[in-house]
Amino acid sequence: MVPAETTAAVLPDHHIQVDDNIYDTAQIAAIHPGGNLFLKSFSGRDATTAFISIHRRKFPHKRMSHASVGTSSTIANDPDHDEEFFELCRLIDKIVPR
Prior knowledge:
Elements: E1 4-6, E2 15-18, E3 21-24, H1 25-29, H2 37-41, H3 48-55, E4 68-72, H4 79-95
Parallel strand pairs: 1-4
Antiparallel strand pairs: 2-3, 3-4
């Protein structure tokens, strides 16, 4: 199956968007250490900012390619802001390690 392109406004409840990729939440939940609790919280929405805020790293798109169901041209976050956030995380980790 060739992944379809969609927009954030029409995401089904069982999908999430991370960056410009759309994923099936059930497939990610099957291997996610936290199960589907957080995935359900962001079902049908763009979860990019939430993922970065919680995990403090970029989403592993290659590792999750099996769960990909399409792409979207609608990206809610600015990747330049991500780099600034990651730099802040690196500085904080030196003082307060995780």
